[in-house]
UniProtKB/TrEMBL annotation, chains A, B:
Residues 74-189 form the Tetrahydrofolate dehydrogenase/cyclohydrolase catalytic domain. It comes from Juglans regia (English walnut). Keywords: Hydrolase, Multifunctional enzyme, NADP, One-carbon metabolism, Oxidoreductase, Photorespiration. One of its GO terms (molecular function) is methenyltetrahydrofolate cyclohydrolase activity. Pathway: One-carbon metabolism; tetrahydrofolate interconversion. One of its GO terms (biological process) is photorespiration. Residues 210-357 form the Tetrahydrofolate dehydrogenase/cyclohydrolase NAD(P)-binding domain. PANTHER family: C-1-TETRAHYDROFOLATE SYNTHASE, CYTOPLASMIC (PTHR48099:SF5), C-1-TETRAHYDROFOLATE SYNTHASE, CYTOPLASMIC-RELATED (PTHR48099). It catalyses: (6R)-5,10-methylene-5,6,7,8-tetrahydrofolate + NADP(+) = (6R)-5,10-methenyltetrahydrofolate + NADPH; (6R)-5,10-methenyltetrahydrofolate + H2O = (6R)-10-formyltetrahydrofolate + H(+). This is Methenyltetrahydrofolate cyclohydrolase. CDD domains: NAD_bind_m-THF_DH_Cyclohyd (cd01080).
Length: 362, 362
């Protein structure tokens, strides 16, 4: 097992300012690698500290850290494969029954290599489950009008059930205008404010649940982890992960606290949580001492850190110090192989849901 | 001072199931009186209990309750008057400058006495600040189509800047369809999901902030109570108060937890809060022992309880046991006279904001 570096002390480990969080999250989701210098290595022999094992909110001032990982690994890669298999079967059943093949349109503006890779992966994933993909590549200097014309055409195209504009857009384009142009029935990303409003409101149903938060909740469901009545802490309040994840947990009757860059002593919140979802893009920020024994950890962060031993010169770590957390949590997602593979699986799921809804297929 | 009854023990005081909360909140906001039997009287001589005055989240297991109220009273009646005065001045300035008078249309279906009273109060408040009010009263057996026609006319009427459909509607009408028909530019209640989505999202601005939560935050602002970095607990997650109040607190950089009917031991959350907003419609539910010394309490509940000594046979109390809370909090809204008067003041404010926006008046 590779030793994970978790050296920054919990006293100094602070959340990123929100603008940085956004950058980090966007980079993780769709952007370039963001290399960080490696932290000092955490000693592998841990001392055993005072334990407060009460279920009450008394802060677990320090956690008992044994030398062996005991948490169940929440295997996102395997769950994502299972979901893709289910979608494959359903897409085939739809085609046989009504002759419709779901279609996802992806629009890429400019020639960022990382964006091109993400688009290629989405295309490959569509193919793997039998969903048609339609790709448009526009030059970097395209106008908003040109892009809006393509969106409008896809809005009207009955063979397209989901539309995704690859972010980030070139700086001369207004992202909000562009995303608002995607009709809500095909907004498989689920980022439209009307959709977020429905997600927030009791008695309303969102058209689509945003992919990454949906993936987090799906992992909890598939591992039989109950949410109702649990204390949940979401770290990060981004529009694309933290905020919708909190809304989803609340819809499932968790008591939710959102911790963010302005929260003093975030570890005092996380220590009381039965479920932690972290989405800030800060490598190894959540230490073992931040976690209540038996908590469930969903780590959305995918942070590259320098690693001269790796052939690529870097390796990926989460927001949570996996080595420490896996010894105190009851279940945890690894990075990579946890939430990451779920995002595209949920995109396929949303595209299929859209096709079913548009064609009234059950 | 009238002795407030707060006898139910904190161990047994539970949040209402959400359906009840909705009913209670709606009744408070727009509905009939909901009389409850009086609780037993709380002894007026309190014993002094252990105090944990640390600002850390260590639970204050029991609060120090002295025999004197020490909290500053947050006088909503006075602030609402101040706001109405400001609006009066601004409405007059607008009329003089561009000849436009803001207009609020209120539609009432059926002949519920309480609804008629609320509509009358809104009309009177409009008159008091110089806003035109337009009232439509439809018979109980009107069709959705008839109501929608009036909404559509008001949507198109340039003299109307705000539209309010008095709730509850008769049971044969679909409330969601009706409320969705109000164009978002005139939805001064701010309940449209598109508006709620914008409220939830960073980098977006809601067209209108829902009146009661806006009133809560306005009280904090006007009393110079800082929100940024504070721990806030919202009790209740209704679409009209709890949820938007939580979103507003988060927009101002508080760390927010939402406590609701499925929360186990809600007092463990409230005891850690610097700011508590309660909106559940449970008389005297929040006891002194639920409150951290020095916390600020915004009590949205207006609950009628039986009182044979009162000429009306009942009196109004909040969700918070005022007598206990006022001895431990640093500031608290009374009931009545706290948040209540702010709701209509904020409705007037939203109507004026709408007129300013539509006529591009600064």
């Amino acid at each position: 097992m590779v030793c994970i570096d978790c050296s920054s002390s919990s006293a100094t480990a602070r959340l990123l300012p929100m603008s940085h969080q956004h950058v980090a999250l966007r980079r993780f989701l769709r952007g370039p690698l963001n290399l960080r210098p490696p932290c000092c290595s955490f000693p592998r022999t841990f001392k055993t500290l005072t334990v407060h094992s009460s279920a009450s909110p008394s802060p677990v001032l320090a956690a008992s850290i044994t030398s062996e990982a005991s948490a169940k690994v929440i295997d996102g890669k395997s769950v994502a494969k299972q979901i893709r298999d289910e979608i494959t079967t359903e897409v085939s059943r739809m085609k046989d029954a009504i002759g419709v093949i779901p279609g996802l349109a992806v629009i890429l503006v400019g020639d960022r290599k990382d964006s091109a890779t993400y688009v290629r992966n989405k295309k490959k994933s569509c193919e793997s489950v039998g969903i048609n993909s339609y790709e448009v590549r526009l030059p970097e200097d395209s106008t908003e009008q040109e892009l809006l014309k393509f969106i409008s055409d896809f809005n009207d195209d009955p063979s397209v059930h989901g539309i995704l504009v690859q972010l980030p857009l070139p700086s001369h384009m207004n992202e909000q205008n562009i995303l608002n142009a995607v009709c809500i029935e095909k907004d498989v990303d689920g980022f439209h404010p009307l959709n977020i409003g429905r997600l927030a409101m009791r008695g309303r149903e969102p058209t689509f649940v945003p992919c990454t938060p949906k993936g987090c909740i799906e992992l909890l469901h598939r591992y039989g982890i109950s949410i109702k009545g649990k204390r949940a802490v979401v770290i990060g309040r981004s529009n694309i992960v933290g905020m919708p994840a909190a809304l989803l947990l609340q819809r499932e009757d968790a008591t939710v606290s959102i911790v963010h860059s302005r929260t003093k002593n975030p570890e005092e919140f996380t220590r009381q949580a039965d479920i932690i979802i972290s989405a800030v893009g800060q490598p190894n920020m959540v230490r073992g001492s931040w976690i209540k024994p038996g908590a469930v950890i969903i780590d959305v962060g995918i942070n590259p850190v320098e690693d001269p031993k790796s052939p690529r010169g870097y390796r990926l770590v989460g927001d949570v110090c996996y080595e420490e957390a896996s010894k105190i949590a009851s279940a945890i997602t690894p990075v990579p192989g946890g939430v990451g593979p779920m995002t595209i699986a949920m995109l396929l799921s949303n595209t299929f849901i859209s096709a079913k809804r548009i064609h009234n297929f059950r």
